[in-house]
Amino acid sequence: MGKRKTNTETDATAVSIAASTEENFPRGGASALTPLEHREISNKVAKDLFASKAETEEPTIEGEEPVKKKRKPSKKKAPVKAVEAPKKSDNVYIEQLNFKKLTVGTSFLGCISHINELDLFVSLPHQLVGVVAITEISDALTAIVEKVANEDEDEDMEDGSETSLPNLAELFYVGQWVRCKVSAIQTGENKQKKVVELSLKPSVVNKDIAKVDVTPGVTLGATIKSVEDHGYILDLGIKELTGFLPLKESKSYIEKYNRDQELTVGQYVECAIEKVNGRTANVTIDRTKLDHAVVEDPFSRISSVLPGQLVTGLIDAVQYNGLSVKMQGLYTTTIDQSHIPAHMNIEKDFKLGQNLTFRTLFTMLNTDEKRIAGSLLPHVLELDVPAVAEDKKSDKFVADVFPAGTFLDNVKVARVSPTGVWVTLEGINGVCGHVHVSRLSDEHIAAVSGTSGKFKIGTTHRARVLSYNPVDAVLVLTLQPSVLAEKFLRISDIEVGSMVECEVERLIPAGIIVKVSKSISGLVPTVHMADVKLTRPEFKFKVGKKIQCRVLKTDLMKQKVFLTLKKSLLNSEYPIFKDIREIKVDDVSHGVIIAIKNNGCVVSYYNNLAAFAPGNEMTETRIANLGEVFNIGQTVKTTVLRVDPDENKMLVSFINSKKKAEKKALDKAKLDAKHEAKNDALAPGKTVKAIIKNVKKTHITLILPNEMEGRVHASEIYNTFDDIKNTKRPLGRFKPKAEIDVKILGVRNTKLNTYLPITGKTKQHVDCSLRLDSTEDDSAREIRNIKAGEEFIGFITDVHPAYVRLSVGSHTVGTMQKQLASSDPNVCNNLTKHFVSGQAIRVAALAVDANKNTIEFMNADDSSLPRITDIGALQVGQVMNAVIKRINKTSGLLVSITSNIVGKAYLTDLADTYTEDPTAPFTEGQVVRIAILNVIKERSQVDVSLRPSRIFPGIESNEIKAFADVKRGQVYEGYVTNIAPNGVFVKLNHSIVARVKIANLSDSFVKEWKSIYKEGQLVKAKVIYIDHDLHRLEASLKKSVIEGTAPEKKSKKEQAVESDDSDEEMPEVDDSDEEMAEASDSDAELKQDSGSEDEEEEEEEDETPAPALKVDNFDWTGINNRVDSSDEEEESDDEDEEKTKGKKQKKEVEDKTAELSTTAPQTASDFERVLIGSPNSSYLWINYMAYQLQLSEISKARDIGERALKTISFREEQEKMNVWVALLNLENNFGTEETLEEVFKRALVYCDPLKVYLQLVKIYERSDKLDKAEALWEEMTKKFGQSPEVWTGFGLYYLQHQQGDKSRELLQKSLKVLPKHEHAQTAVKFAQLEFKHGEPELGRTILEGIMSNSPKRLDLWNIYLDMEIKAGDYEMARRLFERVASMKFSSKKMKFLFKKWIQFEKAHGTEDDVQRVKEKTLAYVESMS
User: Fold this and answer.
1) What pLDDT is recorded for position 1400?
2) How far lies 149's CA from each of 134, 141, 165, 717, in Å?
3) CATH among 3.40.50.1970, 3.40.50.720, 1.10.3210.10, 2.40.50.140 for 963-1095
């Protein structure tokens, strides 16, 4: 019993060391102990806390004296073992950290050593290094990174609105001190790659510090939360505490460390607490104050001790490898020799009981043996850089002053340890060096002595720098002669293009691995082994052979070196290309072909530099396949033609293009001189004499002075159309050999649509004009300047059966479609008869596409032709020409009005009289007259008619022009437009369709009824039902209905099959014409629903099939109650088998009434029979309603609901309530607002009003009528304000629809209205809703407020605990258990609490956690006894 009590007390101190008695018994009497006794007890507790449990439970950690005895199962010997263990050693273990000892949760004081784009490298104590990802700095930066990632996934993001990643180089600087915590430890598969992942987030690093321990002098890492007028709000990561940084306290930091830039949201800063006032702590980031801020008040608990705190303590142990200090007289802290200045003698310069000021370095508090380490190094105490020369601090980072590879001639051994030696640097006190024992010599050294041998204290050596750790202020050195002799220690030391001697290490498929230095290997790619391809390279390059290589490129990120062995590159007399900014045009160098393309090749140089050589610059003669002449890996001599450093592009040549260009320029100069005199006479704008050489249909060819050839287009002859006397032959008046005056226009550049200078070097056609006095520029008739609607004089160049090609300028050509040539279809259908080449015609432009270089014209001489420039110019009733583009015998014609506008003519609009094949008179390509029926510009849909009554006024027809013209009982002709699984649809005109159910297709029974009709078939249909609101028609194709004769009597089997067919769902009607799938809204919107009877008058439901009505979880569809279709098929198969038998057997009449008690009703008669036996069953009544809805009989379903209300006994209130809910569902889905309101008001009279309101609001929510639902909730809070159920239900509604703020306002309103005794339960309910659907932190806030008023309500504490456990925050739940267990309850309640706690730890904790709770339980029992 004594041992258990001791363990319990020790565990309790882990939570709180100071004043633990007061926390556990807050209402007890005053303490009888003196302050001195308090201090002694606290010291004893701390000693027990830091005493190694490994002496009795676990093996000792590295560096301690091992325990020889292991734990034995005998319980009697265990106490003896615990007493003897401390006598083994009086030495204090000095913490020496390494990677193996690291644990997640260890906190460090670190220093930033490198800044990348997406992470930070942080140097840690004892030469460790960690990585901080950009998402582990602050919540604000994490949000920005996530936003950028989401924008990258969004392909439609507009330019200019993108968010950029934070620039870490602007938020941090190399050498900046930070507080961090280990978040993960990664070890590679080969255990070589070890990564320590860190976090800077204050919510992670500072989460364990208590608010009471945040006192003046404490330093913390924080992030900027917001920028205010007078300062910055900081996130300290401490619950209920926010930091405020005044502007004056940030000025010096901004000027010196932040490049005069204001602090930004999410930026990390180190701060010192100046004053704490309630929930706000005033802080400073002024380095002069921060560096000297000392923590005066002792920490109340060990978890509040963070790294980076400047504290005082007393030395309680001095050893050769460090010190043990009692921090603040409470917590044992160790200072390793690496963090004591190297020039100090530890055992002489430090005494027991001496008072020290040191800075905490790291804390490891999440392990059984809690460790705190400190530092006495001056730069750590000042949080600054160490002095490097004459006690002066360098402006540069020490790693830049002493980069890797630097030689240090005189380093003196100052301290020796088993792991290596510590050395001092000549003239430098702030930085020391450390040489690991493995790097003292190339040979193995078993042990190092400080008093004798080569490395005794005081000896000097020549060393080389390997790396630098800014936290330890130590240079990692080596004394190995082999490393000192190395030329290259880092890849960055190797210069690209330099010659290096390497040693062959091994051959691999990719090339040769060579050893550049002892620690650096390189690769010679296969193509760089030699100038020719080697078939057996292993014979030439044997392992260990020394070879001379040239460095091609280095990759510092991947730490790779690439070299070449090509003699052509090793012995090249030309300078190497390795920096594009140093290369100039005409520079020459050797390169290697790395890729051959159809139009050239890619040449590679040094340092990843590449250039492109065009095919015509690779050889003098043209080669079809460059791969036949050149090879990949071939060395070529190149000359730079063009270089663009900004674009990183370069163009090179294999041939001597410089001389070639000079020769070309000389020839050009001679040719220009030859034609200079000739060109002066033919300058553009001059008028010259010319002789007609030939007269074509649309132009005249001329002979100009100097024997050059000219050309005059017909458009350059006449100014107006009236000037043309003979429109059929406008150039007939010109004769060959006649002399005429012409004006020179120039030589046309067809690509740029401009005139070129006349050179005479090659054969050129000079454009001329006969309009000598005209000032009009020919550019007005160019395609780029032509606009739709403008008129021109056109000259026909070619006549095709489908179109006419014509030109309106010397270089502007367009087409005139046949339907636009005339308003007379006969003329359009025979263009070659009415138009000839060369004919002049007045035309107007309808559509111009400069990108495709096309113009569409129409005949402007025909005033009957409307000018349709776009679909918006079309008007209903307009008559015009169109050409038939496609014929579909089942749907109609597709016609082209212009090249960009297409119309659809349905079968019903091809003639005034319906025929079996209405498309027979038409052929594709035929021009017809059409009338516009309907235009939908948004969908580019045009409906047209070819009916003569529409085109020619005065002709009468029986066409149905509007829905109002349709009369019930009238017989109409139409065409079958769709055959669906459950019926046939008949098109009466282009927009009116009648539905014919299966039951109304034929008088006689036909099993395969789909074969009766086919799409496009002409039928007669009688309208039997009209829905004027929804514009729906129901028709019949029965001959007896249409002619009024008596139908033949159906057999029972026919009726059964017909009934089964009618119960099937009817799918959506689709237009059969794929090209005009969007042509008719009516067709696309028609939805078919099932019907079950042959009545002529039926009511229609909504467009979509009837959705399921719901009464809580009740199934309204009726599908689950139907007989499986497979059973029906089996029955049908059995009947077929019976028919095939030769015997004629009479079928036995079966009484199936008894089966209704075991199977669900399948027909209306089944339901009626079952309801006779159970008239009060709302389940049956609602199923009956659902059955009718499946048959699209909404009115019948409504009537059945009314029957149910009258039939069910008044005593069955719940059954009646179910039916009322069903009716509300029905009216909500299929009725109107008026019918729903009428049912709702009636239900309020007969049922509990609150229940009816709650059911209706649920119906609104399920059908996504959120506005109505919210309005109804508001009404309920006014009518039923005394009901907590209404307020909590309304709050849940807000939370489920992302309106948490309104839910929290609702809680405050409810507390003003509800009775006082309901407040606690209502608030608890709102807190539970926050945990489940909102923000758990707000739920905690509500519950904390409740518990402060009702601390003795264990039922409420139980709810609080359950919410924390469900939320998954087990650490928070554990702390809450501790809190509740410290309160005073009855023994029965405490038993319940501890039992629940143990169950929680068993489910979510460890065995140690379970044992700890059991010990607390036992301690409570003992205290009660």
Assistant:
1) 85
2) 13, 12, 9, 65
3) 2.40.50.140
